[in-house]
Amino acid sequence: MRSQIVLLSCLLAISHAGSAHGVEAPLSRHNRHETVRRLAEQGVIGAQLKIGMMYLRGAGVIPDYNEAAAWFRKAAKQGSASAGTALAHVYLFVGKRPVQDGAEDIDLIRKIAEHGDAATQWRFGMMHLLGKGVAQNDAVGALWVRKSAQQGDINAAAALAGMYLWGKGVDQDDTKAAVWFHIAAEGGNVLAQTFLASLYGVGKGVARDVDQAIFWLEKAAEQGAGLAQRALGLVYFIGKDAPRDDMKAHYWLRRAAEQGDAKAQTALGVMYLGGHGLVQDNDQAIVWFKKAAAQDFAIARTALAMMRAINNNATERDQLISALKEAIETSNDEPKKLLDSMLPRNF
User: Fold this and answer.
1) DSSP code of 337?
2) Buried/exposed 96-120: b ≥16 CB within 10 Å, e otherwise
3) pLDDT tens, 135-168?
4) Where is the signal peptide (predicted)?
5) Residues 291-310: pLDDT tens digits?
6) Are the C-beta atoms of 53 and 80 separated by less than 8 Å?
7) What is the number of alpha carbons within 13 Å of residue 243 lying toward its C-beta?
C-alpha cells in the first residue's frame, strides 16, 4: 500500500508539471511525456511505471507490449511490487508473452510474489492456471492464488472459490467454494456476488435461500454486472423463485442485453414477442433475436426460424414463447466463463 501511495504521489506531481494556476501551457502533453521519459531513464520508478502504462494502453504512443514490459522490468528490478504486478498483467491481459527477456520477467514476478505482494501473487497464480508465460499448472496456480486470498485480496478469493467449485488445482469442495465466494462478495467483488447468489439459488455448498440469492444478485446487478443483471431479470421473468414482475424483468434484462449478453437479448426478444410488460412487437423481438444469433446463441437462431414458420399465428406464437422460456431457463453457460472473467483487467 505504501508503495502505491508513493507511486500515486509521484504520478500526480508529474501530471501537473508544466501547468500553472490550473491552465496548461502549450504543448504541455508533449512536455509531460518528455519529462516522464527523462525521469524514467534516470531510474525514477514512478516514471518507469507511467511510461510502461502508456505503451500498454497506447496513451499518446503506439501500443507496444515489449516496450511496456521493458519499463515495468526496469522498475521491478529496483524492487517495485507495483511493477511486478504490472509485468504479470502484461502476460495475462495482453494474452501473449513479450518476446524479449521472458525468463527474466518470470523470475522478477516470482521474487515479488515470494516477498508477499498479494496483487502479484494473484496474477502469478492466474498465469499458471492459464499457462500464460509459464507452463500450465493448476496446483502451482492454486498455491499462489491461495496465498493472495489469505492476505485478503478479494479478487484472489473469488478465483479460489471458482477453483473449489470445479476442482481446478484443489479438491472439489462446494462448501469451501461458498466460503470463499462469501468473503469476496462481502468485499464487493461482483462476480463472487453473482456466483454466491447462484449457490444460494440451488442450495449448493449452502442451504438453499432464495432471499439471499436475490440479495446478492441485486448487489452485483446494481454495480453493473451483466451476468447478475441477466440472472435477476430472469428470476422476475420466469417467476419461480420470486413473484413474476415483467417491469423488473424488462429493466434488468435490457441492461444486460445492452451489454451484449446473448441470453438476456434472447429473453428480451421473448418479452417483446409475447407483449410481457411491453407492447407486443414482433419487429423488436426480431431485432434482439438477431443480436443474440449473431453471437451464435442457438436459442435465438431457433427463435428466428420458428417466427418465420408460424407466420404470426397466435396459438403457435404462445407455444413458441413457452418453449423459448423453458430453453432459456434450463440453458447453462456460466461455468466455462468464470476463470476467464476473473482475469485482472487493471491494477
Assistant:
1) G
2) ebbeeeeeebbebbbebbeeebbbb
3) 999 999 999 999 999 999 999 999 999 999 999 9
4) 1-22
5) 999 999 999 999 999 988 88
6) no
7) 2
Q: What pLDDT shows up at residue 198?
A: 92
C-alpha span between 178 and 290 (Å, rounded): 37
Q: How far is CA 164 from the centre of its chain?
A: 19
The domains of the chain, with CATH numbers, are: 153-222 (1.25.40.10), 256-347 (no CATH)
Q: Coil, helix or strand for 346?
A: coil
| Per-residue cell: 281 | 412487437
Strands (E), the chain: 19-20, 23-24
Q: What DSSP line would sit under 89-144, residue for residue?
A: HHHHHSSS--SSSHHHHHHHHHHHHHTT-HHHHHHHHHHHHHTSSS---HHHHHHH
Q: How far is residue 252's CA from residue 288's CA, in Å, rounded to a whole number?
A: 15
